[in-house]
Automatic annotation (TrEMBL):
Gene3D superfamilies: 2.80.10.50, Beta-1,3-glucanase, C-terminal domain, Thaumatin. It comes from Lentzea cavernae. Residues 1-23 form the signal peptide. Residues 32-393 form the GH64 domain. SMART domains: RICIN (SM00458). This is GH64 domain-containing protein. Keywords: Signal. The keyword Signal applies. It comes from the Bacteria.
């Protein structure tokens, strides 16, 4: 059974890494002492790739890093405030190439991969501060990067792609065993990265989870708990569903059968007040859980803390998975249902839903206990000979952008218009009946939307607020002039993470344009004419 374990110390309130590690009895050593790990770059991106192998020596708990040859070095003590860690990056492969690293048998940790820029790590007296791009002031927030998690010990290799904290770099993981057979998971469908990003953008209230760079590159989608922590998502989003699901068991019994290979082990839950109390088959109470908060569900912690035991932990894991998948209250034997039954509620973990939906095999680590019912993107071999991480295509890096022509409202067929051919800086844009005039012609150039006389569509004053005016300005290259027309028809400024919107649903000529939260309304939908 896999459990989340903290595998290095970090600065309080900044980040503590959680790794999907494995509790496994000792076994005779098999597999090479230094396991080859092949990193293949099929990303389609031209930036340099930087790799890091970081983790814990599971024999003694020492934290450190691994070089390309497989030598493990413990970190030196850091300071307070944290001091920069030495550069332990390994040069990754160029597009179409492969780099081979070696992983020693006794490490549990992460392989980080960043594009274009090296990651910045820091040391405290207690250990390593890992990148936490959801935290304010994190120096890695503008870097495109991701990681995979692994444990390699005498019982074999466990390697997974993780979306528990964020969805960023598309990559698959593989392991090849002694028989020569290769297992693979974590691969996105063609266009899957854009599909996840656009799906989140079009889900009402979720758009703040998307983090973009000033050049329009989408760096990552934050998991809902991380987005809520930084104020980009409703902190109480799940509360009404949690209450409904919890109260469902005041009048009926929830049966939890946490072990797939031991169907005789059952626990029975009933709600009394805010507590759900569980008894075993002998009628003895064995566990009690207070009604969790939204934050407890996102983190599978707090009221849903899962100790590494054989009773409370397995029940907590099961409850947390059911709440993420919106099956608690609806399916009364848990774990219950299958992928077709998951995420069916209007209030659900749409982040995990979209990530799973866009995986080739449907597997992902969309939340901490996504391994309940084996939904996780993990490969394991008890006698591995090599492993791999494949950086897969980004789908062009963004939705392919159109070139010249008019921009037409899906709602009423009117065109974005420069009123009276006034191309002065600060001129607010409107909609008007489509006439084919040059004041209704716009071209997408390097992420900007330009008039035929080379003025740029601009968010006034670079505002990120609802209601900010959409205007013309001299092209300056700043983030207020970056726009993406998504496959779903949203015209988005990535800096504000808001959509070009016909203000007040005004159906008339002369209706002004402004920026607003992307809600999927027809007054925010556009196409090229």
């Amino acid at each position: 059974m896999r459990t989340r374990t903290k595998w290095w110390s970090a600065l309080a309130a900044v980040a503590v890494a959680t790794s999907v590690a494995v509790a496994i009895p000792p076994a005779q050593a098999i597999g090479p002492d230094l396991l080859p790990l092949n990193i293949t770059n099929n990303s389609g991106r031209s930036e340099s790739v930087h790799l890091y192998v970081l983790g814990t020596d599971i024999r003694n708990g020492r934290l450190g890093y691994v070089n390309q040859a497989g030598a493990f070095t413990p970190w030196s003590p850091g300071g307070n405030p944290p001091t920069p860690a030495p550069d332990v990056s390994i040069a990754g492969p160029g597009q179409g190439g492969t780099a081979t690293l070696r992983v020693p048998r006794f490490i549990s940790g992460r392989v980080y991969m960043s594009f274009g820029e090296k990651l910045k790590f820091f040391l405290t007296p207690d250990g390593l501060v890992q990148p936490a791009p959801w935290a304010g002031g994190d120096p890695n927030s503008g870097i495109l990067f991701d990681w995979s998690e692994f444990t390699y010990n005498d019982s074999g290799l466990w390697l997974n792609s993780s979306q528990v904290d964020m969805f960023a770099v598309p990559h698959a993981v593989t392991v090849t065993g002694a028989s020569g057979a290769t297992k693979k998971t974590g691969e996105l469908k063609s266009g899957g990265r854009d599909a996840v990003i656009n799906g989140i953008r079009n889900q009402s209230g979720w758009g703040g989870s998307i983090m973009s760079r000033s050049d329009g590159t989408v760096l990552r989608v934050l998991a809902p708990g991380k987005a809520a922590d930084v104020g980009n998502f409703d902190r109480n989003y799940l509360d009404s569903y949690i209450t409904q699901a919890w109260n469902a068991y005041t009048g009926k019994t929830l049966t939890v059968q946490p072990f797939g290979d031991r169907p005789d082990v059952k626990y029975f839950g009933r709600t009394s007040g805010n507590n759900m109390n569980f008894t075993n088959t002998s009628g003895q109470q064995v566990a009690s859980f207070a009604k969790p908060s939204t934050s407890n569900v996102w983190g599978c912690d707090g009221a849903l803390h899962a100790p590494n035991d054989q009773v409370v932990g397995p029940i907590a894991r099961t409850l947390c998975a059911a709440l993420h998948r919106s099956t608690l209250g609806r399916i009364d034997v848990q774990p219950g249902g299958g992928p077709a039954d998951f995420y069916q509620g209007a209030i659900t973990n749409h982040y995990s839903r979209l990530v799973h939906q866009n995986m080739v095999d449907g597997k992902a680590y969309g939340f901490a206990f996504d391994d309940v019912q084996a939904q996780e993107s993990l490969v394991h071999d008890g006698d591995p000979r090599s492993a791999g991480i494949i950086l897969t295509p980004f789908g062009g890096g963004s939705t392919p952008q159109p070139t010249g022509g008019s921009i037409v409202s899906d709602w009423h067929g009117k065109c974005i218009d420069v009123p009276n051919w006034n191309f002065a800086d600060g001129q607010r844009l409107i909609v008007w009946n489509c006439t084919g005039g040059t004041n209704q012609k716009f071209e997408f150039v390097n992420g900007t939307v330009r008039t035929e006389n080379n003025k740029c569509v601009d968010v006034a004053w670079g505002s990120t607020a609802n209601g900010a005016a959409v205007q013309l300005a001299t092209c300056s290259g700043n983030a207020a002039q970056q726009f993406v027309l998504t496959g779903a028809g949203d015209l988005v400024n990535p800096q504000a993470n808001k959509c070009v919107d016909i203000a007040e649903w005004n159906p008339n000529n002369d209706a002004v344009l402004h920026m607003w939260d992307c809600v999927g309304g027809a007054n925010q939908k556009w196409h090229r004419g």
